[in-house]
Specification:
The complex is a heterodimer of chains A (227) and B (298). Chain A is an alpha/beta fold. Helices cover 11% and strands 22% of the residues of chain A. The N and C termini of chain A lie far apart (52 Å). Chain B is built from eight helices and 16 strands. Classes of the chains: A alpha/beta (227), B alpha+beta (298). The A-B interface holds A 36-38, 56, 58-59, 75, 77-78, 94, 96-97, 115-116, 134-136 and B 251-253, 255, 257, 270-275, 285-287, 290.
Chain lengths: 227, 298
């Protein structure tokens, strides 16, 4: 276990040390102490290592992650796991706006609530939120799965493409072109797997699936008022 | 961007440290806005005495004998505390309007930053640390206070464009964002007899809230009507003599974090601003909801 004191040794030192880890590294376990809400912690990692941040983080923690597992033992600021490619980011507390934005792959687990624009423009990432999510979540989401055990805020899935949205609680309102859809056996299977990997205590049957009505894919003059 | 911090104390034993705590919080937010910085501090309330915080670009000349000149002009006892480019004049609360009038004639270069029973506002161009040092903010005692560091988007980078803005007694407002209907609202307020001094969008919002409160709204009610009347992006933090409020626009893309313990309510544009507050580890920390008024009072 490598311990890194962010307050004493600075952010650049941490990220350079983490970037230097390659597949097969024997320094596979890192602990970052005194994060104190700092920005860009453990960004751009590309090795199968595990990083635990012992506190709350600022903007973009775990951004662009590949392969690594990053645990935040606190809450995360805006843009946690933004543009993640693979690997896992787990936030024990809450996440601020645009969690998992534009993510291409990997799994983001938020054990508390996520605020607005969770999963905006997601492109293949899987996001599991144990609590609630805020307004405009999954805006223009292209692929991947967003699973919410609690409630969703206004305009869920506005201008959605092919991402799957699963919500257990209430949805305040659906965005343009987002509709409720049937839960088919393959969806229950996807959901069961994600819930298990995210350590979530919920049954797939309790969720409702939402997806795109595919009416806004191409411009149609009759839809002008929906833009 | 802009950075905002705010601290509303519930525990009186922290009051001597208010200025020091606010300064540390604001300095942490320096990289959110390097253009100018300002702090409003609500201090002790002396019976029947009011405070006028004034500013001058030519302080040495303007503040020399200002107390005696003003005392002679309006026939009242006046004391003065000079802090760099600012000075706090204390005089009978009944004479404030007269004092403002006399000031404009005696010292045309002097600008009134704020009036009120307890509030003092200090703001200048520069980084938070240098502004706080110039005005010795760390040594200030108080019940609550608000700080702002500005990255200018609307109106010039100068002292008057810095936050906090005050347009009414003991009322101040800071803003992260930009308002798109400030010109039409400025004209509307002018028709109601409310004037603002600068081209700045935030001052219009401050004037709007003051106008609503003059019409009998509480700060909470004034903020509520602001959701309909103010168009644009905003996270506002406002102060009154005994209250402290937060409001975000319905889109809520400007960041905001609140923390509450038995000892205080604290606001930061980012969690970083709050990390050294006492007991923050066990505080209730949350992001204020969009279009929702949060308000605390003593």
């Amino acid at each position: 276990m490598q311990t890194y004191d962010l307050e004493a040794d600075g952010l650049r030192g941490l990220n350079s040390a983490l970037h230097a880890q390659k597949d097969g590294s024997n320094q596979t376990n890192w602990k970052v102490v005194n994060p104190k809400g700092s920005h860009a912690i453990a960004v751009g990692l590309d090795a199968p290592i595990e990083v635990t941040v012992t506190g709350s983080t600022g903007y973009y923690c775990g951004g662009m992650n590949q392969q690594a597992t990053i645990n935040v033992e606190g809450s995360a600021g805006p843009g946690v796991a933004e543009n993640m490619m693979s690997g896992t980011v787990i936030v024990e507390g809450d996440a601020s706006q645009y969690a998992g934005a534009t993510g291409h792959g990997g799994l983001l687990v938020i054990k508390g609530n996520a605020s607005s624009r969770c999963g905006i423009s997601m492109k293949g990432i899987d996001i599991v939120v144990h609590g609630n999510i805020g307004h405009m979540s999954a805006f223009m989401a292209q692929s991947g799965n967003l699973v919410v055990l609690g409630d969703a805020g206004d305009a869920l899935g506005d201008s959605l493409y092919e991402a799957r949205l699963f919500v257990r609680g209430k949805v305040k309102s659906l965005g343009a072109d987002c509709i409720e859809k049937d839960m088919r056996p393959e969806h229950l299977e996807i959901l069961a797997d994600l819930l298990e990997r995210a350590g979530a205590d919920a049954k797939p049957e309790e969720f409702t699936r939402y997806g795109s009505a595919r009416k806004l894919y191409n411009f149609d003059i009759d839809n002008a008022s929906a833009y | 961007m802009c950075g905002i911090v705010g601290l509303f104390l519930k525990d009186k034993s922290l009051e001597p440290r208010l200025g020091a705590m606010l300064t540390e919080m604001l300095v942490t937010m320096s990289d959110r806005g390097p253009d100018s910085a300002g702090i409003a501090v609500y201090g002790t309330d002396a019976d029947d005495q009011a405070k006028l915080t004034v500013q001058s670009d030519n302080a040495a000349e303007d503040f020399a004998r200002l107390d005696t000149d003003l005392a002679a002009a309006i026939d009242v006892e006046v004391s003065i505390r000079v802090k760099d480019t600012h000075a706090v004049l204390e005089l009978s609360a009944a004479k404030v309007a007269q004092a403002r009038q006399a000031l404009a004639e005696l010292r045309p270069g002097v600008r009134v930053m704020s009036t009120g029973d307890t509030m003092e506002i200090y703001k200048e161009v520069g980084l938070p640390q240098s502004v706080a040092d110039r005005f010795e903010i760390s040594a200030m005692t108080g019940t609550h206070g608000i700080g702002h560091t500005r990255m200018a988007t609307e109106s010039a980078v100068n002292t008057l464009g810095a936050h906090p803005f005050s347009t009414g007694p003991d009322q101040c407002l800071v803003h992260n964002g930009s308002l798109s209907n400030h010109n039409s609202l400025r004209r509307k307020l002018a028709r109601e007899g409310v004037t603002v001094e600068t081209e700045n969008d935030t001052e219009v919002a401050a004037a709007y809230l003051t106008w609503k409160m003059q019409q009998g709204s509480t700060l909470g009610e004034a903020l509520d009507s602001g959701i309909n009347d103010l168009d644009g992006f905003y996270t506002f933090v406002v102060g009154t003599k005994d209250g402290f409020g937060v409001l975000r626009d319905p889109i809520a893309c400007k960041p905001a974090v609140l923390a509450e313990t038995d000892q205080y309510v604290a606001f930061g544009s980012e969690y970083r601003a709050l990390v050294n507050l006492p007991g923050i580890e066990d505080a209730k920390v949350w992001e204020p909801e969009p279009a929702t008024v949060y308000f605390w009072s003593h």
